[in-house]
Amino acid sequence: MSMYAPPGSTVPGGRRRRGGTSLPKQPERSLVSALPGALSITALCTALAEPAWLRVHGGTCPRQELGVADVLGYIDPKLLDDYCVNPQTILLLRVIAAFCFLGILCSLTAFLLDVFGPKHPALKITRRYAFAHILTVLQCATVIGFCYWASELILSLQQQHKKYHGSLIYVTFAISFYLVAGAGGASILATAANLLRHYPTEEEEQALELLSEMEDSSETFPADYDIANQFQPPPAYTP
């Protein structure tokens, strides 16, 4: 009785795969959260480029719209002479611009992490728990709070310098304010998409990596040798 079964077919070159199908990969990319992250970046960039943050009605200020673009770099002296803004308002608008830049940076970081899905432990934790998206939400909320503060200061300034006695004065929010609010809402959706996603445990990740390494590795055998022969039972004992 032969100890080995008849040799089977071998892969050309004497190399044989251990399994018939490849193991399923576990991608760390999260395109579901990357899409609202991209919307958040677009909204924040548009809000910075858009000059309309606050609309002024009544008062001595000839400008109907004010924004962060008016206080970045050169400041028109007429804005101060016509009582459109004061030094405190200028400082608030610059702080708003700074938080918008920080929001763009955090949102861009979160977007890149969601798209590429790096395996580094620190970056993996940052992506899974959506820390960058949460920071973007906080910064958008901070911008909204400073916008409200700036609107109250501008309203008080216009009420002190009325163009006509008894004229109605009010300050409303313009498109950039709502763009920042929309960016915060998009970041909330991205945060929920990351936090609600099911991720494998540490033990499952180690098992998947081990199985993937075993699948990718291959061994060389003689052309007339079948790998299944090594699992054949020994011959029966005969006295």
Describe this structure in words.
Helices cover 54% and strands 4% of the residues. The chain has a 3-stranded antiparallel β-sheet. Helix 1 packs antiparallel against helix 3, helix 1 runs antiparallel to helix 6 and helix 5 runs antiparallel to helix 6 (175-195). With 239 residues, it is mostly helical. Strand 1 (54-57) and strand 2 (65-66) form a beta hairpin. It is built from 7 helices and 3 strands. It has helices at 31-49, 77-81, 87-116, 121-128, 131-160, 175-195, 202-216; strands at residues 54-57, 65-66, 170-173. The longest helix has 30 residues, at 87-116. The chain is rod-shaped, with a radius of gyration of 32 Å.
How are the SSEs ordered, and which strands pair?
Elements: H1 31-49, E1 54-57, E2 65-66, H2 77-81, H3 87-116, H4 121-128, H5 131-160, E3 170-173, H6 175-195, H7 202-216
Antiparallel strand pairs: 1-2, 1-3
Helix pairs in contact: 1-3, 1-6, 3-5, 5-6
List how many beta strands DSSP finds: 3
Count the helices. How many?
Answer: 7
Structural class by helix and strand composition:
mainly alpha
Strand order of the largest sheet: 2-1-3
Cα radius of gyration in angstroms:
32 Å
- The N- and C-terminal alpha carbons lie at a distance of 15 Å
Judging from the principal axes of the Cα atoms, what is the shape?
rod-shaped
Oligomer: single chain
Low-confidence stretches: 1-25
